[in-house]
Amino acid sequence: MKFEAVIGLEVHVQLDTKSKMFTRVPCGFGKPPNSLTDAVVLGLPGALPVMNREAIDKSIKVGLLLGCKIAPVCKWDRKNYFYPDMPKNYQITQFDQPICEGGEVEIELPGDSPAVMGEHRMVKLTRIHLEEDVGKLTHYENDSLVDYNRAGSPLLEIVSEPDMYSPEETFSFLTSLRNSLIYAGISSCDMEKGQLRCDANISVRPVGTKTLGTKVELKNLNTISGVKNGVEYEIKRQIKAIEEKEEIVQETRRWNPDQRYTTPMRSKEMAHDYRYFPDPDLMPVKIDQAWIDGIAKQVPEKPFDKQRRYMSELNLPYSITSALCPDFSLCQYFELVVSLTKDPKKVGNWVVNDLLRELSNANSETNPIAVEESPVTPQHLAELVDLIDKGVISNNVAKELFPEMFSSGKSASELVQEQGLEVKSDQGEIESICVRAIENDPDAAQKFRDGKEGAINALKGFVMKETRGQANPKVVDTMLRDLLSN
Amino acid sequence: MSNATIISKTAVELSRSLSEKELSSQEVAQAYLEQIDRVDPQVHAFLHRDDDDFLAQANASDKRRAEGNTLGPLDGIPVAIKDVISVQGQPLTAASKILENYISPYDATVIRKLKDAGAVIGGRLNLDEFAMGSSTENSAYGPTRNPWDFDRVPGGSSGGSSAAVASREAPLTLGSDTGGSIRQPASLCGVVGVKPTYGMVSRYGLAAFASSLDQIGPFSQTVEDAALLLETISGHDPLDSTSFPTEVPQYSAALRDPLTPCTLGLPKEFFGEGIDDEVRKAIDETIEFYKSLGHKIVEISLPTTDLAVPVYYVIATAEASSNLARYDGIRYTSRSEQSENAINVYAKSRGEGFGEEVKRRCILGAYGLSSGYYDAYYLKAQKTRTLIREDFSRVFKEVDVILTPTAPTPAFKFGEKSNDPISMYLSDIFTISTNLAGLPALSVPCGFTNSGLPIGMQLIGQAFEESSLLSIAHAYDREHRFGCQSPNI
Hints:
The complex is a heterodimer.
Chain A: E1 3-14, H1 39-42, H2 53-65, E2 69-70, E3 73-74, E4 77-80, E5 90-93, E6 100-101, E7 104-108, E8 120-132, E9 136-139, E10 144-147, E11 154-160, H3 167-183, E12 196-206, E13 216-221, H4 224-243, E14 251-256, E15 261-267, E16 277-278, E17 285-286, H5 289-296, H6 303-313, H7 318-324, H8 328-340, H9 344-362, H10 378-389, H11 395-408, H12 412-419, H13 427-440, H14 442-449, H15 456-466, H16 473-485
Parallel strand pairs in A: 13-14
Antiparallel strand pairs in A: 1-11, 1-12, 2-6, 3-17, 4-5, 4-16, 6-8, 7-8, 8-11, 9-10, 12-13, 14-15
Helix pairs in contact in A: 2-5, 3-4, 6-7, 7-9, 8-9, 8-10, 10-11, 13-15, 13-16, 15-16
Chain B: H1 3-8, H2 11-19, H3 25-43, E1 46-48, H4 51-66, E2 78-82, H5 109-116, E3 120-125, H6 159-166, E4 172-177, H7 183-189, E5 192-195, E6 215-220, H8 223-233, H9 251-254, E7 263-267, H10 277-292, E8 296-300, H11 308-323, H12 342-353, H13 356-369, H14 375-395, E9 401-405, H15 421-425, H16 432-437, E10 441-448, E11 454-460, H17 466-480
Parallel strand pairs in B: 2-3, 2-4, 7-8, 7-9
Antiparallel strand pairs in B: 1-3, 4-6, 5-6, 5-10, 9-11, 10-11
Helix pairs in contact in B: 3-4, 6-7, 11-13, 11-14
């Protein structure tokens, strides 16, 4: 019997807001433990939550970006359970009226080769709701410590339908979702900082059947590749279990990324009764059309829409767009250079090949470097492309120049001047080198004179070598032909 | 001026004496400290005092006055605080063992407003643990006694706040009212107590019992004093999402305006069985008084009245079960010595830290919210709450205020109801429905029983109509001033 997997994801995204979800304390990462707290965050007696409008704005923006229906009222519920990472022992969340419903995420499956666009498909979303994040526990041998810096940060939970059927699709879904969220300035989506976290609901069923199998919830998927690997393992585990006539139990399992297997965490019977009820401390807030319209103006072009536009309007090949478009900053950089020059394709090549290479070489874990911080500014790259177009430098020189521009932060024209790299078109100087070329290789000269056209290349190579590639190839060609015809 | 004279004064009288320089705030503070020293060993209204801080505030007030920078009529007047309202640097126990060692690091909004008005913030007043109760017998630190009869309860949950005013340990106090916790003790102690409209006074800094019902309000000898304190603590607060964005009328100024004839409604459901004869008689006399002033009295009906107590005990306990979850032994609450693992930290710390009534209500509330029971209890109670609200809206098309007894009986004896939760719950039968409807209501002393126990009448007003409610109450109070009579202690 052949089996297929059915996968749904629950993605938690920390919103990039100035202050926390229900108080004025700033959000932040890497600050001294418990320094980003106040009476509200710590749940002191008498503290009350007040809604952060920026978090609602951003949630509406995500909803519009992903084609969701925006709720007419933003309503809050309490989810009650005891856990030391949660100061109030209830979480303020949205239970029966999420801020967004429906919507979809466009995904691209791998193509036949990196240069070929793969199949695109829409993955349906169930809902998106807003809630407050919890703190962070660290366990020691005899004690546990808790840091409430993260507690109360606005957290968006994006729930997909069980609408993915392979680990590759979950990978594409997460990648696409993350790109979209970064595009819209919702979150930095840094999984290492816990800004994007993911649980997966996985079941398998015989191919051709419609009913869903017993689902298992998989937790601790902390990286995008962890999601892919964890889901892949869990699917195999379930199929093997069914083939060995074992029953799949509805449970929550944990992915152990180092040992690469999943282990049970808790069964369905151990599930909490969260005793949800509307939070009496927070009045429901009406979201009217004017509010939505205001946000709609800020919703950016989606990554795949941009990619299609680059291909159709700018005639960029798929391979360039697929490297550019997932990265919003890179696209901004690219568009700025294009606006200063004329040839999108050439610019695209420079950005995708040379800029990305230098950025990745310069990148280190301790000192990551963003596109915006590139020492080669968009103006610098535009000038470099111009210098080639105008014939001031050759393409080869430019290729060698780029790393120097990156490491020195100097513009191409500065470096050309410093190093005397302009293309040499000086007739006298080139003529003397051409004469030497003919003297140096009389055989090649004779062969050309005898009608062997290709023999001229050896002579040209000599000239270019002597001039370190700076001689204008057209001038060299004309000069050699003149000299050889005499 | 003798200390006995000072402490007999109302806040308005004290304010006048201060501004006429007959008295200093220092003298006022000293007089009250002396009275507390004298009577509180028996009354036990106070859970905590910080005399140095109290006198320093009084001193600062005198200094402002000397420099001509007085902040208003409350400048230099002591206000003692129910021990559920946060005052920076002071303990907040909510009369619970679980908060034994907690010091609040911030001021509640009402406290900030009082400090801005120059009031001298006094000690921490006793209550039923987490404001759950009607007798102050549920305090983990021992009950407060009724100053009119030490064998009787002062009412609750704000029993310390009512007893402190009645025994002249403070001219003004703050309490909180979730189902009658200001009005019932005011009635049992013979003082004025006001529960404002829900949303009129910020709850920021009030340790929550039931968030959708709780309101902070004043206690005083007279309606005039209550108006002064209420207008100081009222107003929209951006730190409380449930606070209502409205201008605060100058209640005390409005009291001076002549009162136009109005209609008082007597809900027939409130005048049935179970009302003490002497209470009945006192209420009849107030009705006659209002008639003599030219006001119209009509009988009305609030058919949902008998649903209020059951609805209240589902909603209030549900909210409480969640609100009190934060007291868990992890951060600022007392941790059980027996807690060898996380579950035990919760179970034992809460088991040891909470009293019986608090545990009873947390369990009751959690049950009403649990899956499978939510629709039958919590949701149904919320729907019924809407009906109760609608009942009042309909009635208020005909009448300006509703007049009822505040409590069915005068102060009862210690132990009389403490083993029978239902009979204790029923002592709030006249006060609970106004919290469910979010309406303002107050209790004004309206006489004494033959044995000398105070009796209170309740006036219920329309939402955000505190001004007319206080004016109507004042029309009675200024002629009777039962709250100015002191117990012989």
